[in-house]
Amino acid sequence: MLGLYGVSFGAVSVASGLDFWQTAALSALAFTGGSQFALVGILGGGGSGLAGTAAALLLGLRNGLYGVRLAPLLQVRGPRRLVAAQWVIDETTAMAVAEQRPAAGRVAFWVTGATLFVTWNASTWVGAAGAAVIDPAQWGLDAVAPAAFLALLSQQVSTDAARVAALMAASVVLVLTPLLPVGVPVLLGGLAGMAIGARLLARDS
């Protein structure tokens, strides 16, 4: 499944205006599917690079929280910290914290991170290289960005507070989309969702 996402991302990224090397660099340096799809989705819809980058950064904030959770477990020092920080994503975090023994958690993190990093980047290259002969609309790849984003989002809305926050954020986006430039409603909806979610969590705690 990850390989198909990667191929789709590569093709959609090039169709959205990035070239092969920009697409490859984005996967290598960002390495977080939700943020990457958000960026190219906004660019492909006619939004500005600034709006796309801001949306990508907003979605990537959760990885910083994952890093706080994983730091005591991984206990990395020196240059390895840079690699570890790059590989802190949903899947590596889930695999690491699922293990009962710290040593097994560290192994799970590194193995999962290496496997996903290689697979994601290789499949991105395939999709970007084939973008010249692949029509994203004909193959339905233009729908991959929003579909992948929703699939990733569904993993994060497992509580009532998260569902309410997501619903309110979506409502803000729907209301503002006809009124504001492409990408801006997504940013405002995300900020609204974060504010509402934080308030609900504070009320329930």
Structure, briefly:
The chain has 205 residues and is mainly α. The protein folds into two domains: 155 residues, no CATH class; 49 residues. Helices cover 76% and strands 0% of the residues.
Proportion of strand residues: under 5%
The main pleated sheet reads as:
none
Shape: globular
Helix content: over 70%
Number of domains: 2
> Quaternary arrangement of the chains shown?
single chain
How would you spell out the order of helices and strands?
HHHHHHHHHH
Mean pLDDT metric: 80
- Unreliable runs: none
Total helix count?
A: 10
What is the fold's blueprint, element by element?
Layout: H1 2-15, H2 20-29, H3 33-44, H4 49-74, H5 80-86, H6 90-98, H7 102-129, H8 144-154, H9 160-176, H10 184-204
Helix pairs in contact: 1-3, 1-7, 2-7, 3-4, 3-8, 4-6, 4-10, 6-7, 9-10
